[in-house]
Amino acid sequence: MTEKKRAPLSFLRKQESTNAREETVKTEIIIVGDEVLAGAVIDTNSAALARGLADLGLTPQKIIKVGDDKRAIEEVLKRALGEAELVVVAGGMGPTPDDKTVEAVAHALSIRLVLHRPTLMRIQRTFQKRGMRMPALAARQALVLKGAKLLDNPVGMVPGMIVTHQGSTVVLLPGVPVEMEAILTTGVLPYLRKRFVTNPPSVLRLRTFGLPESRIAEKSARLFRRYPALTPAFYPSTTGVDVVIRGRSKVLVERCGRGLVRLLGETVYAVGDKEIALVVGEALRRCGLTVATAESCTGGLVGDMLTNIPGSSDYYRGGVVAYSNEMKLRLLGVRAETLKRHGAVSAQTVREMARGVCRLMAADIGIAVSGIAGPTGGTRKKPVGLVFIAVAAGEKILVERHIFSGSRRMVKERAAMAALDLCRRAITSRRPLSAIRRPEKGKGI
Description:
Layout: E1 27-32, H1 34-37, H2 45-54, E2 62-66, H3 70-81, E3 86-90, H4 101-109, E4 113-115, H5 117-129, E5 143-145, E6 149-151, E7 160-165, E8 168-173, H6 177-195, E9 202-208, H7 213-225, E10 231-237, E11 240-247, H8 250-264, E12 268-271, H9 276-287, E13 291-295, H10 301-307, E14 316-321, H11 325-332, H12 336-342, H13 347-361, E15 365-371, E16 386-393, E17 396-403, H14 408-428, E18 436-437
Parallel strand pairs: 1-2, 1-3, 3-8, 13-14, 13-15, 17-18
Antiparallel strand pairs: 4-5, 6-7, 7-8, 9-11, 9-12, 10-11, 15-16, 16-17
């Protein structure tokens, strides 16, 4: 197999040093919602909150979940305030009668609720823009704790709130993840950074794709033994494995990070929090290239990921979801002989799909994906999870064969991620794009 190109070290960012005094702040998180307790909604808020707080050196000691019950919320909050200096409550701040968090907190802390007219006017304008009459219940989202510091909600209606009670700080956030994370980033974390004097650890995140967690841990074991003062953590998902290095010494964290980049090579697609689509977009823009997509099993997911990046119209020409063989023939110019001899899920077919979408969209680069997402449709020779991906650039082409595990949705997500990663490597690599490359053992699993 071709030797992997070493990823550049230049994007390891320098972090500012701090002389802040270290202080342990007892912190608890309360997640509110019947839907969370019932398992109807997956709780992603506690993870996002814990990550954000930990980056400030405010590692939560407890994460508590409670239903939409006013008395239960009050009891949990009072118990938390008896132990913690910082309590973050997320959820139960919507307009419906089952949203009882604000009312419960007001009663527990003996604070009056008042109508915040600027928030009410903003809610009214939001409905007017939609051409709708504001429901009376929507006004409940403008009821705030008297004296609270209000935090703007850039993507929703209800504001975040911060109040102090007997020396403790209570933060209230909506439960909709996109709203919660937006207020956390723009309002809560900047406030807490000033409110609590801590000595947060130095944190470095490496984002990888192409190696399973166990293989990364195996390859990096010797390196991490050289840095006993640092704490590595591995976070696998359908989009790859993030490796996070934490420690008090920024110099050691960065030195270890550089060593890990050298070990993992081009499987590292970013240092920091960048998504793969942003990395690909930056590479395309930097090189002055355009891209188009031809998708079968992923159903447009690759194009969706690319267009989630603001300004992607600079380099994304368009895409074709050629789910049927007929569309592969008519729109992408795949030959009937190719489909008959090799099938829709084959290296030969994705080659022609990638070249065809380049011609159709007048793009510099074509990405093509075809596979069997399951749970049915597999055979002994072509099992469920088999996916072929091609990236074409002029006469050069790179094809990869993967077998992904998991549900239908997981196969689609992993295939889309692999397609963008192959495009990234095709742009940044200097080696010819000619061979069918089989991933390293375990890749894509």
